[in-house]
Design brief:
With about 230 residues, the chain is α/β, with parallel strands linked by helices. Helices cover about 25% and strands about 25% of the residues. The strands form 2 sheets. Strands 5-4-3-6-1-7-10-9 form an 8-stranded mixed sheet, sandwiched between helices. The relative contact order is 0.22. Bound molecules: NADP nicotinamide-adenine-dinucleotide phosphate.
Length: about 230
Amino acid sequence: MKLTPFSFEKPADRPFFFTSFVSTIDGKIIVKEKGYWPIGTEKDKEYFTFLRAHADAIVDAKNTAVRFAKYFIRRIHEDMYQEFRKDLRKPPLPEYIVLTSNPDEELHNALKNDHGFETTILTPEDGSKRVSIQHLIDYLNKKGHTKVFIDGGPTLIAQLLEAEVLDEIHLTIAPKIFGSLPDKTLTMVEGILFPPDKVPQFKLLSVEKLDDEVVLRYSLPRLTDRS
Ligand SMILES: NC(=O)c1ccc[n+]([C@@H]2O[C@H](COP(=O)([O-])OP(=O)(O)OC[C@H]3O[C@@H](n4cnc5c(N)ncnc54)[C@H](OP(=O)(O)O)[C@@H]3O)[C@@H](O)[C@H]2O)c1
């Protein structure tokens, strides 16, 4: 597959935030039962591995880290990711950051690896339940990160949308339909229902066809560009 580097324009006061999700036609990004993962194809994997290779840092909320950190840490040490990093003239590894109020054994087990790779765990300050998006931005600014990939999951995406700082979404639609039963599936954004006058509106930047899948690249117009 021919992949062209993405250009991202960093806002003045914070890093550029981007994410990618793979969803079924009926909007499901995960089923909380075995047998449904992976949702996308190898081509989708190559696309999102390339996209992630642009990032100085990658951020996960706890549940996504518990489920995927082992694969993630393995994948960033594999040849595909390392080649992309070289092509993009990035240092071999990004900083990996996990947000949680409860850095328990389950999380530490998920982060254990044979590469000696260390994860940064950010926890809330002053008794609050969450790391605020501003605190995350302050941390990333301090570390000099300009491009930050938000891996997920849905509760973290909700917080970034609410703060109006999620600059780009790359959404792969897999040609599948999972259906749904209460509490069995998740969509890309959970834990919030935006009021009608606050519904985030994105602009379509491009459409990439990967055989039967399609990748939609959406950007959030900057506040100054909105009418
Ligand atoms: N299809 C896809 O492309 C895709 C992509 C990403 C994720 N996923 C899936 O999404 C699922 C997870 O989604 P989820 O909604 O259950 O969980 P999630 O968003 O990954 O994690 C939620 C948890 O993270 C912690 N957290 C979130 N924001 C925080 C903050 N600002 N500060 C501190 N802690 C914070 C909280 O737990 P504590 O307070 O207990 O720490 C919260 O309950 C996974 O199964 C993953 O596979 C799918």
